[in-house]
Amino acid sequence: MANNERTFIAVKPDGVQRGLVGKIIQRFEDRGYKLVALKQVTPSKDHLEVHYQDLKGKPFFPSLISYMQSGPVVAMVWQGLDAVKQGRVMLGATNPLQSAPGTIRGDFCVQTGRNICHGSDSVDSANREIAHWFKTEEINDYTSDQINKWV
Ligand code: RTP
């Protein structure tokens, strides 16, 4: 069901370094998406080369890999209606100078090579990326009913 669609969102090393993790999480929570997985990881070169396999051969590929390896990344899975498409809208255009104000990139950054966040670009990519970054047992299936029993 589309309501349970999942997307992979990551705060890149520059976003972590600049203390933007909380703000990015807040936007997804405020919008109504549900956080179902979260971890901080410094990814290996091999891991990133698989993640960005579609970009192998692009002139910026080596600098992209070293940028993404330059510090911890906060990897997340967000769930909800049209999460993949809306996640991309919330992130803004790849080049922050073309991102609308109100989007994450449009509000917090100016360079394509330091664009602070990643979001899956299709449901197929999301499924591939979630499986690449998370083990099944790291993804939490829960409803707000279960949470409400404790508050
Ligand atoms: P992402 O995968 O990180 O969410 O970005 P995207 O889909 O919006 O853009 P994509 O074309 O997949 O590029 C991945 C990341 O590579 C860096 N990039 N640098 N120097 C350049 O021309 C250039 N183009 C892309 C960006 O960090 C981009 O997010």
TrEMBL record:
Domain Nucleoside diphosphate kinase-like span(s) in chain numbering: 4-141
Residues noted as binding ATP in the record, renumbered to the chain: K12, F60, R88, T94, R105, N115
Listed Pfam families: NDK (PF00334)
CDD domains: NDPk_I (cd04413)
GO BP term (any one): UTP biosynthetic process
UniProt-annotated catalytic positions: H118
EC number: 2.7.4.6
PANTHER family: NUCLEOSIDE DIPHOSPHATE KINASE
Protein name: Nucleoside diphosphate kinase
Annotated source species: Mesorhabditis belari
Organism classification: Eukaryota, Metazoa, Ecdysozoa, Nematoda, Chromadorea
